[in-house]
Write a structure and sequence with these properties.
By secondary structure, the chain is of the alpha/beta class. It has one domain: Molybdenum Cofactor Biosythetic Enzyme, Chain A (3-Layer(aba) Sandwich), CATH 3.40.980. Helices cover 45% and strands 20% of the residues. It has 6 helices and 6 strands. The protein has helices spanning 10-13, 21-31, 46-58, 78-85, 91-104, 130-152, and strands at 2-8, 35-42, 63-67, 88-89, 115-118, 121-126. The longest helix has 23 residues, at 130-152. The two termini are 20 Å apart.
Length: 161
Amino acid sequence: MRTCVLTVSTSVSRRVSEDESGPLLAHLAEEAGADVEAMEVVPDDFSLIEDRLHHFVDDGFALIFTTGGTGFTPDDVTPEATRAVIERDAPGIAEALRAESARHTPMGMLSRGVAGIAHRTLIINFPGSPKAVAELFPVVAPVLEHAVRTLQREHGDAPSH
């Protein structure tokens, strides 16, 4: 499963703070069977996020995980940039992530992350905190391989779910 991790953080992109969530997300993804072939950092900028997501979709990545930019601050635009790229929502994933997050803290319901499909790529937004990434990744790990296999099927190969 060709995978990309995109960290969305102005402070990390300016080297003011260190990226902890991206490497953790990559590690967890690899433990779940993903092949993390790309890791990038972009600032909280709608156009840059959208551009990088399109790039990785066009490059044929099966999975794109983003971390950061899913909160309430004015520069948290990762969900909007993701929506500009995806063609179909995968609301069950975002709902499951929020439900798990809310089990750990009531602030979890403030996460605005989305998940969806662009061509044959599944994009999932994770919060920017390493603690949240560690708590939430196990929720999606069991479905990743099936999701990727399903997306890569040709039309009519199998019934849809």
